[in-house]
Amino acid sequence: MFTRSIFIVDLVTIALFSPVLFNSQVASAADALDAKDYEFSATATIASDYMFRGVSQTLEDPTVQASFDFSHVSGLSAGVWSSNVDFQDRGVSDDQADQEIDIYLGYGIDINQDWSVDATAIRYILPGTASDADLDWNELLASVNFRDRVSFMVGYSNKVFNIDETGIYYALSGNLPLAYDVVLTASVGYYDLDEALNDSYLDFSLGAEISSGIFTSRIAYIDTNGAGSDLFGDIADSRIVFSVTATMGN
After folding, report:
1. Does residue 66 register a pLDDT over 90?
2. Could you tell me if residue 149 is inside a domain?
3. Cα separation of 38 and 76, whole Å?
4. Who contacts 104 (Cβ-Cβ below 8 Å, separation ≥6)?
5. Is pLDDT at 34 greater than 60 in this prediction?
6. What is the pLDDT of residue 29?
7. Which of the four pLDDT bands, split at 50, 70 and 90, describes residue 216?
8. Number of CB atoms found within 10 A of residue 171's CB
9. pTM: predicted TM-score of the whole model, two decimal places
10. Which of the pair, 34 or 224, is modelled with greater confidence?
11. 141 Cβ neighbours under 8 A, 6+ residues apart
């Protein structure tokens, strides 16, 4: 580990400091290796509405959201995401929900250069709700992805919305990069809520986003079919949603 010039140094000095130098270089090499093995990132978003599968979660009001995410070269990922919510107009029967916190753990692998698969377990937490309104629930997500351009996802919950009934969500999404860091996005989803709400519905989105530095600006048209409005009323009507997200990470 020493160059020839180091050998002219007094042997006593070498004896005293070589362990320190060795450990320092090993630690630096380990740090450099570890830095390539994992990534941390954080996001902050301001949006005109919080839309979840075609339905507003804020009664069509603006939202502020944030996330912290970890990913490892092994395919393991974990994170936490939060947003303000509002499901009901204030009143005697209000569930008092005003915040959502999602905690997730996932794992993904590359099948080859084109295809990858991943699975994620999510816990949706609604803290501070009324004593008779437990809205926390779990969901398992699995997706197949082609070149990071097209993805097919299935979400399964045996207690969707904590109703103690099954809900299954199917979604196909895609994106098309254009010039000047512009990306077109589109998705269609089908939410099977026959057991939980005695009906199912479709949701659609078509949008565009542009990135500049740490910021990504998005605009999207979002809508559901008639069954969506039948289930959720005005908060499932068509709308245009704007958002700006700042992303920071190593």
Report:
1. yes
2. yes
3. 9
4. 77, 78, 79, 80, 81, 120, 121, 122, 123
5. no
6. 45
7. very high
8. 19
9. 0.84
10. 224
11. 106, 119, 120, 121, 122, 153, 154, 155, 156
Q: For residue 31, what pLDDT is reported?
A: 52
Q: What is the 3-state secondary structure (H, E, C) of the chain?
A: CCCHHHHHCCHHHHHHHHHHHHHHHHHHHHHHHHHHHEEEEEEEEEECCCEECCEECCCCCCEEEEEEEEEECCCEEEEEEEEECCCCCCCCCCCCCCEEEEEEEEEEEECCCCEEEEEEEEEEECCCCCCCCCCCEEEEEEEEEECCCEEEEEEEECCHHHCCCCEEEEEEEEEEECHHHEEEEEEEEEEEEHHHHCEEEEEEEEEEEEEECCEEEEEEEEEECHHHHHHHHHHHCCEEEEEEEEEEEC
- 53 residue type, one letter: R
| CATH number for position 120 | 2.40.160.160
**Two structure tokens written together for 161:** 């919305």
What are residue 94's phi and psi, to 5 degrees? -65, 135
Residue 94 has which token pair?
């209000």
Q: What is the mean pLDDT of residues 24-45?
A: 70
* Closest-CA residue to 204 (of 194, 226, 189): 189
The pLDDT tens digits for 70-109 are 999 999 999 999 999 999 876 656 788 999 999 999 999 9
If one counts every other C-beta atom within 10 angstroms of the C-beta of residue 16, the result is 10
Kindly state whether residue 119 falls inside one of the protein's structural domains: yes
- How many domains are contained in the chain? 1
The pair of structure tokens assigned to 83 is 């947003």
Work out the average pLDDT over 176-186. Answer: 96
**Has residue 26 been placed in a domain?**
no
**Which amino acid, residue 14?**
I
Domain membership flag for residue 24: no
